[in-house]
Amino acid sequence: MSKKMLYATLSGALTVSMLAACGGTEDTEEDPAMEEDPAMEEEPAEDEEM
After folding, report:
1. In angstroms, rounded to a whole number, what is the distance separating the alpha carbons of residues 27 and 20?
2. Alpha-carbon torsion (31, 35, 36, 40), positive or negative
3. What is the DSSP letter of 46?
4. Which pLDDT tens digits describe the chain residue by residue (50 residues)?
5. CB-hemisphere CA count at 13 Å for 38?
């Protein structure tokens, strides 16, 4: 196998692996801790009148 063919094959394999690793998915799974934010669920404090 000539060097040119070897380099072309290796560069193709590198390109495919880069696209597969950096392709990403449409899954937008959020952190469950972010869903249960206690600061957002608290009722506002009532003002006490004197």
Report:
1. 15
2. positive
3. P
4. 799 999 999 999 999 999 888 776 666 666 555 565 556 666 666 777 66
5. 0
